[in-house]
Amino acid sequence: KRATVRRELVPGRIWSFEQQVQGLIYVHVPVRMTAVKLDAGGLLLYSAVAPTEERLVPCLQSTEPSVGAVRHILLPTVALEHKYFAGAFADARPDAQLWVASAQYSFPLDLPLDLQGISPRGGGAAEGGADASDRPEWAEQLPYKVLGPIAESVGAFQEVVLFDRPTGTLLVTDLVVGVPTAPPEVLRVNDDRALRFHSRDSPAEEAVATDEARAIGWKKICLFALYFQSSPLAVASPPDGSPAGAVRFFRSAFSAEVPAEARALGWNGFIAWSWKPDWRDAFEALRGGGSPLVPPIIQVAILNREPRRVLEFVRAVGAEFAFTQIVPCHFDAPVSATPKEWSEAFNFLR
């Protein structure tokens, strides 16, 4: 029942199929599968989303007659929200080859790919220095670079980025995003309760169904999704790790001040925070005018572990791929950017 929004990003060449990642307390963000026309015929899909019979399959079928059927599916990361549907999508397109980033893992048991629900047909994505003879047939049109794996406490971080030569488009998964000011269409058509839920500044405030309120809700969702805790977010009774602290937290989270219509939005009116007046400044600082942004969570939790390795990857991508726009798997797309803006997004490592 997930809504799917189809958008043509480059006329006749690149399409976006967007669904919604549903997080706790309505922190919903768009997730994108990108379809690229292959000059040899057919489509390559970058990062599969849910192959819903009611929503996505008809959208995809409306694209295939003009460019050809899906021939390749690439799982470019090990992140769960992207790998979750890769096997199911490959099953829905049995004639397509499935390619996967090589550092796949499962937890608590590190199972073979077949038992993770992924059965590659065509082999894992070659590492950056692999011999050209080992590379997929689509790599001439869509050369790629691999970052990682970067070790984490559980598993690893890895991402495969592609460069579509004919359109000058760089495809990335999570490394960079562009933050729009307006709510993505898929959040509105799928379930706009998230936007209304987060439009409030405090528990006692009513949630209204206006475009202005939805835009406010979206900006606060961005601050929730991209930071561990944004500075203008004030938690009424922060948990301190003790049972008594947990009790105080949940008592404050289900305040009697919450209006009935806001409680009816879901989560039984749960709201354990209020927003300080400077949240708008925080959003604009985060957005940076729409320039490519490395999500702050990824900055501090992953990439700063191996800064030299990451910066060498960034340099190589910018030196070899003359792109003019970036299509990430989340938030806005396409993001207007050249290798210069791409490199500047990683200045936090310098």
The helix/strand series, from N terminus to C terminus, equals EEEEHHEHHEEEEHHHEHHEHHHEEH
> Approximately how much helix is present in the residues?
25-40%
Q: CATH homologous superfamily name of the largest domain? A: Ribonuclease Z/Hydroxyacylglutathione hydrolase-like
Distance between the termini: 44 Å
Rg, alpha carbons: 21 Å
Oligomeric category: single chain
Number of helices: 13
Given helix and strand content, the structural type is alpha+beta
What coarse outline follows from CA principal-axis ratios? Answer: globular
β content, as a range? Answer: 15-25%
Indicate the topology.
Blueprint: E1 5-10, E2 14-21, E3 29-37, E4 43-46, H1 56-61, H2 64-67, E5 70-75, H3 80-83, H4 86-92, E6 97-100, E7 144-151, E8 156-164, E9 169-171, H5 185-190, H6 193-197, H7 211-226, E10 233-235, H8 243-253, H9 260-263, E11 273-275, H10 279-287, H11 296-301, H12 307-320, E12 325-327, E13 335-336, H13 339-344
Parallel strand pairs: 4-5, 5-6, 9-12
Antiparallel strand pairs: 1-2, 2-3, 3-4, 7-8, 8-9, 10-11, 12-13
